[in-house]
Every structure is written in C-alpha cells, then in structure tokens.
Amino acid sequence: MSRLDTAFYDLGRLDMLAEQDSIIHRLDPRVKVITTLLFIICVISFDKYEVSRLIPFFIFPALLIGIADLPFNYLLRKLILVSPFVLFVGIFNPFLDREVLLHIGSLQVTGGWLSLISILLRFSLTVGAGLLLIATTGFPAICMAIKKLGAPKIFAVLLLMLYRYLFVLIEESIRMIRAYTLRAFSRKKIRYPIFKQLLGTLLLRTLDRAQRIHMAMLSRAFTGDIKISRQFSFRTQEFIYLAGCAALFIFIRFIDISGILGKFIMETGL
Amino acid sequence: MSHHIVEAKNLEFTYPDATHALLDISFRIRHGESVAIVGANGAGKSTLLLHLNGYLTPTSGHIRIGDFPLTQETLQEVRRTVGMVFQDPDDQLFMSTVYDDVAFGPLNLGLPIDEVQSRVTAALETVGVLGLKDRPPYRLSSGQKRRVAIATVLSMSPDILVMDEPTSGLDPQARRRLIEMLQTFKHSKIIATHDLDMVTELCERTIVMHEGSIMADGPTREIFQDEELLSKSHLEKPLTMQGCPVCNSHNNSS
After folding, report:
1. Where are the domains of chain B?
2. Across the interface, do A212 and B96 touch by the CB < 8 Å criterion?
3. Could you say which of A113, A146, B18, B227 has the lowest number of CB atoms within 10 Å?
4. ipTM of this predicted structure
5. Are A132 and A22 in contact (CB under 8 A)?
6. Distance to chain A for B133, nearest Cα, Å
7. Would you tell me the crossing angle of helices A192-218 and A153-184 to the nearest 10 degrees?
8. Which neighbouring-strand residues pair with B8?
C-alpha cells in the first residue's frame, strides 16, 4: 500500500475515534474548544527557557486519554509525524545560544538546549491537545462549535468543506498515482515533469468538481449561508468540566509544582 | 388538476465556446408523468437537465415550471419544486454527515428545527438508510450514497424529480432496489440515462435526443420498437425487449 493510502485510512481512524462514547465525548463541543484554547494559552505563556514547570501540564492529556479511552500509541505516532517541522524551528538554538544556565553534576546545559527542549515540550502539549480535541469531538462538530462561538462564518464553512473534500481529493490522487505506477514499470519515483502534469490535472479536476458542488448547493436553495441544525446545550456537566479544567490549568500555571516537589524530595533526602 | 408542470418552448442554448448544445427543444411534461431522456454521449441530455432548475439560462426560448415561468425572481421557488439528483453523489453530498446533508435543503428553506428533523427522518426512511444518519459520506458504498443523494432532495418535498444517470455505478441488486424504490414515488420524474432497461420499467414516455435536438418523443414501447430511430441515435433495443439469445439459439439447434 502506498503512503497516501495509509494516510487516508489513518485520517479516517481519527474520525472513528470521535464516534466513541464517553463522558468527554458527550460534552458540548464548545466547552471542549474553550478548554483546549485555555490550555494552549497557559502552556505558551511561559518564559522561553522554562522546562520543569511545563511538565505538570501533561496531566491534562493523560487524563483525557484515560477517561475517553483513546489509543495512546496512535496519537503519539501522529505527533511524531509532524515533529520534524518543529524540530527545525529550534534545531539551531543550541549553537546560537551558548550561555550556560544550568549545571547537572559536571554537565553544563546552555540556554540553547533548554529553549529547544522547551519548544519540543510545548509542541507536544499544544499539538497533542489539538489532536485530542479532534479525537473526542470530531472535526465537523468543532467547526460548528467555533461558528456558534462567533468565529467568522466563512472560516467555519471553509474548514467544513476542506475536511469533507480532503477525502475525495486523496482518493482521486490515489487513483491517479495508481494509474501512473501501473504503467511506469520499474520507475519508482514520479519524475518532476510528470508530477507537474499530474498536479495540473488534479487542479483542473478539482475546479470542475467545485463547480458541480456549487451547482448542487444552489439547487438546494443555498443562498450563501450554511445553516446548522445541531443544537448545543450548556448543562451542569459542561460547567463542572470548564471550571475544573480552568482551575487545574491556573493552578499548574501559577504554582511551581515541580519546584515544590523537588524541594520536598531534597529536604527529605537530606 | 392536470396542468402542465414542466414546459419547454423553442429552447436553444449555446455554450460560451460556441458549441450549440440545444437546438429548438420543445416539450410538455404533465403532472405525475415519468419521462426518460435518452441519447448518445454528448447529445445534450445533461445540458437540458441543467436548464430545468435554472442553473443554465437559455440563449433563447423559455421554460415554465408549474405556474411559474423560470426567471431570476422565481428561481428559488423553482429550485424548491424541482429536486435535482446529480450523477456523482460525491458532488451532491457536501456536508460532513448524512444527517446534516439531508437537512441542508430544508434549513435553507427556513423551516423550523422540528419540521427539519421530521423531514430528514422521513426522507431517510423513504430511501431506507435511516440507520446511516451519523455516518460521514466517505464511509458509504456507492449504492448508499445514491440513496442519500435522493433523500437530500426528497427532504425538500419537490413536485418534480430530475435525475442524471441514477443507476450508473450500482451493482445489479442495488440497481434493482433503486428502481423498485423509484416506482413507489408519486412525483413527476425526468430521468436522463443510458440504462434503457430501467426506462422500460419506470417511464411510460421517452424523449430521444440527438446532437442537441429532439429526434422523437412518444410512448417508450413504440420508441424502442423503432430500430431505425434507435440506431440513428446511437442506441440499441433494451435487452428485455430483444428476446433471450441463449434460449433462442438453444431452440434453433434442437
């Protein structure tokens, strides 16, 4: 199976996870979007050299994975898949920032290394939270939630359409690449000139399809606004969840748990 | 009441690249009638269908749907009256779940939520896929997609169903079930297709198109008996009317 096929089934799996039933899954999507945002703000608000105080934040994804019964390995794989991009953002920090900030025994740790580790931790926390949001809510519900929360209409509609036709686009590309490989024989990689043509064909097909979709929308009385029938309700459990998460994040944000814990161990150790 | 529900008069259409797609098309389709539009590839069937809900505007001539002439002002009303099922269900199912997709039309018509809900349930029940209402469209089979596509239109309770190749890409049993389902519908039906066997079962009347104009318009049985007409318009007698070649050869040899 080609890598594109695998990606296709992988995406579908994230969607299937959102169909599970748990306390977290049943919550109003809006409350999950808000808590995720809050979480991300708390995580990125630390100083760039901060490492130890970020670690307690891992309790939130851990709790979600536990309560919502999600496959940890699968989510970890997704995270590792995008990590190279982030690694490149911070890879030069150890060479540029050589000021020694920390001594562990005889090992000297420079600011560059600390900021690189900090970037990686933040990445795991924020992107992980995003993945968990999708896995517990489902992409369409998130789009509808952000629309209800007051995001621009066009933004929500574009995201919805993007998600829906991503699958069609991948299927179409898989068919094209399959047709190519079947007649390319020994040639493994697609040569650049041919790749250009395939991409062009795909673009033209997409434009054609966009036109047909618009036609289908018009013939069902579309006037420029996608209305959504799903009703959301803010009940007691949503309030409890929101208050609980907010309290947890603020506690971790302002109280140095790692520091206190470290001091405690040192004192008892001594 | 037997008013003419779809009427085309001297319809002509030329694409911007100067292809004459429709030439002097005139017909009347009455309430409750089931009409097939057949013809070779590129005969103008799809172009004609796109005129029926006002997606394309005729270069000359005009169309009446029910009591309205088709104009910019009546467009919304006409689109509610004419339910259009497109050839590729992936174009028709653009929302992220089956339920949202079927609810799309009724919501646009501004119906209250309760009414939308009952209409969606009724439409999905009619086509027999109520159990799939929370599925995303990419996890449906072709037959299921086709059924949902029909439900998206039924939920707007149209008077006229217009379908482009409803049986293409279906396996024989899915095709059979679709035909049986369409037989139970009381709507006026206009079906463009190459599936002439389906036509003999569903449509009492057939319009044959060739190179943008109407070659023949009459009762399906008569038209499919006219072999000269059929071969001129790149068609052939439906298999059900040909007599069985296996039995015949068997009879001849014995």
Report:
1. 4-66+160-253, 89-158
2. no
3. B18
4. 0.81
5. no
6. 13
7. 140
8. B27, B63
